[in-house]
Amino acid sequence: MLFVSVNIFAQPKPKHDLAFDTLAKRWDEGIPLGNGWLGALIWEKDNKLRMSLDRVDLWDDRPMPEIDKLKFKWVVEKVKKDQYDSVQKIGDEPYEKYPAPTKIPGAALEFDLNKIGKVKKVSLDISNGLSVVEFENGVKFNNYIHATRQVGYFGFENINEDIIPELIIPNYNTGNSGKTGNSVSGQSLERLGYQKGTLKKGFDYILYHQPTWKNNYYQVLVKWYRFPGKKIIGEWTITNNQPASLPAINVLVKEPTGWPSHINWWNDYWKRSSVSIPDSILERQYYLDMYKFGCVARSNTPPISLQAIWTADDGRLPPWKGDLHHDLNTELSYWPGYSGNHLDLTEGFTNWLWKVKEENKRWTKQYFEVDGLNVPGVSTISGKPMGGWIQYAMSPTTSAWLAQHFYWQWIYSMNKNFLGKKAFPYINDVCKFLDNLTSDSATRKLPLSSTPEYNNNSIKAWFFNWTNYDLALVKNAFEMLWAVNLDLKKEGEAKYWLLQWSAMPQFNSSETGLTISINQNLEYSHRHQNHLHAIHPLGLLNMEDSTEKMIIENSLRQIEKLGTRKWVGYSFAWIASIYAKAQNGDSAAANLKKFATNFVSSNSFHLNGDQKAGQHSDFTYRPFTLEGNFAFAQGIHEMLLQSHKNFIEVFPAIPKDWKNVSFKTLRAEGAFLISAKKENAVVLEVKIKAEAGGVLRIKLPFKTWINTGIDRSEIKVVNGIAEMKTKKGQMITFKNAFE
Known about the structure:
alpha+beta; nine-stranded antiparallel beta sheet; six-stranded antiparallel beta sheet; 31 strands; about 30% helix; about 20% strand
């Protein structure tokens, strides 16, 4: 039997799976498989069953021409002189002009449907990553990518034909020069100028060797085995700068592909946490998005780029070159991993940032001409700058946002080893850079400030006063460094950074709430929500303070007044978390519903544009990027659990009509695992596991309660917040006493 196992731990249900009666006709609607390193999309092209094959680190990492000529001081002077076109020629235009650096595709496998039969059903079991294509004649085509090995498997059952796969190589070298295009639609692959690849075929294998930039290359290897009983099992892999090899398949054993260890990984993944909500559309999208997170994130892989392991398979470069955008895309992509209790996967982001830190420091010194650490807002897989709209591609505060992920990795895990060896050094280097860059003036400020991507690429995107986006990031960075110094008992250093934080100006607000900058309200509908960073993800403004509450509510009223015509898909997913922080569950759910019904493909991919003829947005294009999917998942988490205010709150933003809601082992700051249940609009119980021990502060959702796991005398309640000291591994339950 081929790839069969019972998945007893899975939280997803069959209703969450993908199921169709035909194969998709577009790559961005294909069945997605992945393991962080390798990815595949299963679809149909020209009456062929097609598997688009990809690897996360297939990159053309050549330097962007002329980018190192730029200096921030020169940019500042050009802005002051209103001569910004000279900046755009060096900093922005090369990104559109040159095809590389860029993420590149691997290859594709095809099987002739004329030899197989007519498709009856196409399905993906998201509990284990198994795709099955069933045919009317009884043939089955099974696919999965092993969760922990760099190998994918495919197999046919009940096949009469001797099916041989055909490897389709990307059109890197067709003899043509290739078409130009913009960064959204993508230039033709021929423009990369690669030598022609070599293809070797044998009785039961295909090996493809593709030279890329300079002396780099990648290989694709496919092997297949014929089994008694009309069965074929095949395997494939892609390697980067090393010869490809595959493990031999033992034809004598019942299950020869390593399926048990694969299923163990997915079982562990899904039992980490679960949610149950009464909106079937939102619940299904949530589980599909968390499935994709399990496909693209690992602790030892490069970070989640725009398309990660599902690079466009249309003969062109992927949208926005599949790069690493740090003005929202990478950050949003890891949001659900922290509260979703997948710290082993979020660690992949901080591991990569640590790996490229020295290259980032080199660039910081070269461009900003000060010591410390910043990160190019648009970067290659090796951390090098790519340029683009440099207000954001070379923003002075990018590393301040990225530093939050080091802080989260610490505060959600309470791993003191990580705190001392990585979180503190990284945040410290970031704050040293910000300290150096903002200390020239009498009152601390940036020479130029911006907020992504307000006023797009014009000179008007620069501000000489703080934008609330930059201000929030710098204030938060100083506060994080103050906090980690206290955790490390460095009282003197903590005092210094507290003083730097206290010297920062207040956020600028008006009757419209948080502004873009001083004397600049949010004046038009805009896809980014970055001016609201102080609300989310930084949590610097909260509803418990009456003044801050008014700012938050005014900010959201202004958003509603201006409408969503210039939003894209991720805007709706992102604003849901902001509404959740504002304790407005109805608006959070409404925006998530718009995302799930209008801005995703049939396979759940975020397509940016409104796919229902512009019902909610004027953007009706379809470039696929992943950050919207993962921001959606975090929107659900924020509605169910929040812990950023120095206390834990369950069900902080539940819609009025959600009477029955529950979740299991979502993770809160302080390394507490929280489970809670609400039935008939009444919270019944809250369970807490203190993974690391320490002080627990939780807002109890009932007036009276029965507690187990801790003595009542050890619980102190002030203003509705219950506080208690916990031990490592301690389990505490609060049940509603209904009095």
